[in-house]
Amino acid sequence: MSIGLAAAIPEAEQQIQDFVNRADKALYMAKAAGKNRVVTVEEGE
Q1: Spatial separation of the C-alpha atoms in residues 22 and 4, rounded to whole Å
Q2: N or C: which end of the chain has fewer CB within 10 A?
Q3: SS3 for the chain, per residue?
Q4: In whole angstroms, what is the distance from residue 34 CA to residue 5 CA?
């Protein structure tokens, strides 16, 4: 199982799609790293 996780403190000007895109990026990074990986992406990455 590969898991992508994004973490952020929400602010009014942030778009939900930006948050989803970061989580999606983390998921694909986890998949690229191999099986059974968890990757986190914090705000600004």
Answers
A1: 9
A2: N
A3: CEEEEEECCCCCCCCHHHHHHHHHHHHHHHHHHCCCEEEEEECCC
A4: 16
Q: Does residue 28 contact residue 4 with C-beta atoms inside 8 Å?
A: yes
Tell me, what's the pLDDT at 42?
A: 78
Sequence letter at residue 27: L
Structure tokens at 43: 């705000």
| Structure token pair of residue 29 | 């990074």
Which pTM was predicted? 0.73
